[in-house]
Specification:
Blueprint (H helix, E strand, L loop, with lengths): L7 H9 L4 E4 L5 H7 L11 E4 L8 H7 L5 E5 L2 H10 L1 E3 L7 E3 H15 L4 H14 L6 H12 L2 H5 L5 E5 H6 L1 H12 L17 E2 L2 E2 L12 H4 L2 H17 L8
Parallel strand pairs: 1-2, 3-6
Antiparallel strand pairs: 4-5, 7-8
Length: about 260
């Protein structure tokens, strides 16, 4: 679960390398079909199955009802880097020969609305979003990306208070110290450590959302916002989601 562009594809690749695990990705909506119909998981050969489904993060009630024994990994990444990725990623709609464009424009706004509809503070968030639309016609504006990050991560406490054991996986910690951090995640999952997790490039291939699944863990995208967001954009983003950024440890120092 988690906000898109926060590391869920990386987690899929890493844990698919484990000999006891199979993680189902978003390609052709496969993971979402299993999420809607969990009985179909019995068709898969591995006993331990993971579903990478960031677009279903808002479906917390369904997850609780249909997957009572599961454990949730909720990916969390610096909103400034998330926004850069959302704004820069060129994607195509799922329909054959559908239009292409930036991820934030094609998918981000629908993601915002789905999340708001499933949050208790719906009216307040709708009003805040309306004011953003009043302010700008640019659907790729940095503030829409920040708003998406904000509403997606408001589901973290909902999962943490639910019957589903939940671990927040911080992208920055994962790429900075892969082995000790992955060992923590394995412990949370009650999964025995396997060195294959550090060599996932040998067992994963293909691309999704601009991510090469076979590429080794790297830090090239860390603090990408420093080169890709203007100071004015950073200030606008911080002004919009400052309480959430600070609560999650992402302090804007404007360096």
């Amino acid at each position: 679960m988690g906000c898109q562009r926060s590391g869920s594809t990386l987690l899929e690749s890493v844990f698919n390398a484990h000999p006891e695990v199979h993680v189902v990705g978003e390609e052709q909506g496969e993971a979402y079909r299993y999420f809607r119909e969990p009985s179909k998981l019995d068709e898969l050969s591995k006993e331990l199955i993971g579903l990478r489904i960031p677009a279903a993060t808002h479906s917390v009630k369904h997850a609780i009802e249909k997957f009572p024994g599961t454990r949730v990994l909720f990916t969390l990444r610096d909103p400034r880097d998330v926004v850069v990725s959302m704004r820069n990623l060129e994607v195509q709609t799922r329909a054959n020969n559908g239009p292409s464009g930036k991820w934030l424009v094609l998918f981000g706004h629908n993601e915002i609305r789905r999340c708001i509809a499933n949050l208790a503070e719906r009216e307040k968030l709708e009003e805040k979003l309306y004011l953003l639309y009043e302010r700008t016609n640019d659907l790729n504006d940095v503030c829409f990306g920040g708003f998406c990050w904000m509403v997606k991560n408001r589901f973290i406490p909902l999962y943490e208070r639910s019957i589903l054991p939940t671990k927040v996986v911080r992208y920055e910690m994962l790429i900075a110290n892969p082995e000790p951090y992955l060992r923590q995640i394995c412990q949370f999952l009650n999964l025995e450590w396997n060195d294959h997790l550090l060599e996932h490039g040998k067992y994963s291939s293909g691309q999704w959302g601009g991510t090469n699944k076979g590429e080794a863990i790297h830090q090239r995208s860390l603090h990408a916002y420093k080169k890709n967001l203007s100071m004015a954009e950073r200030r606008a983003l911080y002004s919009l989601i400052r309480p959430e950024m600070e609560a999650m440890g992402y302090l804007e120092l404007f360096d």
